[in-house]
């Protein structure tokens, strides 16, 4: 191949790379436009719902117009901004549920593919992904509470009107509560992952959780949007070794369906403000999953008898009077539960044998 052909091929390769960068930039612009269109559609639906509510209030006001007799003017009831009847809740909650399901099908699998390059253990990777989702929701909740406190403190000085301060805060968040500082929350999640009891020792020390930045970013966005709803959504509390709950989770394909305990979780279940399950998670049930890690038995305890009794002070009283135990029984005054030999307390006094020594000898003879 001549030098001219090599130069021509290099030039063609450079032109192709330029076109690829151009197409990527255009695709990014298209994605941004699609997000803007989706947001505008949600705003239109929200405005239509508010219009219908205001129209209904106007009809009620005309229907219950004051009679000729003087009385107080009609005041339409104020619809609360929290609860399942809220307009924002009805519009945004289905989209967030669909997004959470898409994350299980796509973003979770992408994260598993990334972790597979650093760890061949499939169970370890599943545990890491589940712990990441938990940390994302935890960090998003904390950040949202701080943001809501700032909004409340700002509006408390200037708030006037028929609605309460909490309703005004929620109304402001519904319109302006978009997540702005995603980078800071992602950093908080990564710091939490470094000290998490599950992820801190499962992966190799050289692995940095920056490899899951894209997955963490998307999970944080969804968690923030769920926390900002009038009736916030959250993931259910889960811990390895708990009893399997078919109302919250479904078993994975590699589970043991007769096992009652959860070995580990793959994806969390989603619940509403009242604890009702909206989306089921996924878990793995295995035989041998315990509520707490098993403790290893020491060699000395493995050789000890299965039953052991402490000597009562009443039973040792004759030994201090009549004599001492035999050398063979010095280490175990009671002996084995199956032993039929009696413990000798020495020669009792011939003049007056005490009833206590007799009762002690008869009681030890039962063993």
The side-by-side strand order for the widest beta sheet comes to: 1-4-5
- Low-pLDDT regions: 67-82, 291-367
The first-to-last residue Cα distance is 100 Å
The fraction of residues assigned to DSSP E strands is: 5-15%
The secondary-structure element order is HHHHHHHEEEEEEHHH
Tell me what the structure shows.
- The protein is mainly α and 367 residues long.
- The chain is 53% helix and 6% strand.
- The chain has ten helices and six strands.
- A hairpin with a 5-residue loop joins strand 4 and strand 5.
- Helix 1 (3-63) packs antiparallel against helix 2 (87-116).
- The protein is globular and about 85 Å long.
- It starts with a helix and ends with a helix.
Descriptive labels:
disordered C terminus; three-stranded antiparallel sheet; mainly alpha; 367 residues; globular; 6% strand; single chain; three-stranded mixed sheet
What's this entry about, in short?
With 367 residues, this protein is mainly alpha-helical. It has helices at residues 3-63, 87-116, 122-156, 165-176, 182-194, 199-202, 213-227, 299-302, 313-322, 355-365, and strands spanning 234-235, 249-251, 262-267, 270-271, 277-279, 281-285. The longest helix is centred in the N-terminal third of the chain and has 61 residues, at 3-63.
What's the helix and strand layout?
Layout: H1 3-63, H2 87-116, H3 122-156, H4 165-176, H5 182-194, H6 199-202, H7 213-227, E1 234-235, E2 249-251, E3 262-267, E4 270-271, E5 277-279, E6 281-285, H8 299-302, H9 313-322, H10 355-365
Parallel strand pairs: 2-6
Antiparallel strand pairs: 1-4, 3-6, 4-5
Helix pairs in contact: 1-2, 2-3, 2-7, 3-4, 3-5, 3-7, 5-7
């Amino acid at each position: 191949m001549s030098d001219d052909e090599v130069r021509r091929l290099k030039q063609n390769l450079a032109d192709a790379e330029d076109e690829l960068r151009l197409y990527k930039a255009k695709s990014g612009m298209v994605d941004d436009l699609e997000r803007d269109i989706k947001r505008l559609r949600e705003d239109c639906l929200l405005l239509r719902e508010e219009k219908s509510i205001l129209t209904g209030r106007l009809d009620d006001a005309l229907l219950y117009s004051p009679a000729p007799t003087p009385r107080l003017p009609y005041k339409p009831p104020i619809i609360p901004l929290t609860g399942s009847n809220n307009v924002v809740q009805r519009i945004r909650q289905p989209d967030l549920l669909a997004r959470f399901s898409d994350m299980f099908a796509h973003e979770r699998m992408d994260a598993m593919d990334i972790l597979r390059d650093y760890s061949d253990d499939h169970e370890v990777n599943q545990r890491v992904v589940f712990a990441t989702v938990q940390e994302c929701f935890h960090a998003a909740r904390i950040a949202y509470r701080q943001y809501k406190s700032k909004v409340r403190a700002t509006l408390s000085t200037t708030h006037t009107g028929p609605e309460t301060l909490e309703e005004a805060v929620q109304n402001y968040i519904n319109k302006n509560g978009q997540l702005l500082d995603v980078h800071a929350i992602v950093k908080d999640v990564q710091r939490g992952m470094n000290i998490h009891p599950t992820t801190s020792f499962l992966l190799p020390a050289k692995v940095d959780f920056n490899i899951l930045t894209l997955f963490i970013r998307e999970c944080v966005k969804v968690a923030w949007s769920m926390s900002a709803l009038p009736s916030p959504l959250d993931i259910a509390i889960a811990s390895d070794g708990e009893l399997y709950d078919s109302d919250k989770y479904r078993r994975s394909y590699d589970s043991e369906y007769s096992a009652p305990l959860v070995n580990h979780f793959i994806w969390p279940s989603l619940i509403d403000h009242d604890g009702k399950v909206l989306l089921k998670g996924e878990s793995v049930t295995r035989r041998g999953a315990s509520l707490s890690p098993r403790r290893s038995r020491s060699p000395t305890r493995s050789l000890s008898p299965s039953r052991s009794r402490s000597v009562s002070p009443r039973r040792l009283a004759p030994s201090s009077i009549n004599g001492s135990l035999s050398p063979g029984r010095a280490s175990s005054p009671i002996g084995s539960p199956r032993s039929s030999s009696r413990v000798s307390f020495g020669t009792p006094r011939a003049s007056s044998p005490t009833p206590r020594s007799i009762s002690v000898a008869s009681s030890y003879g039962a063993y």
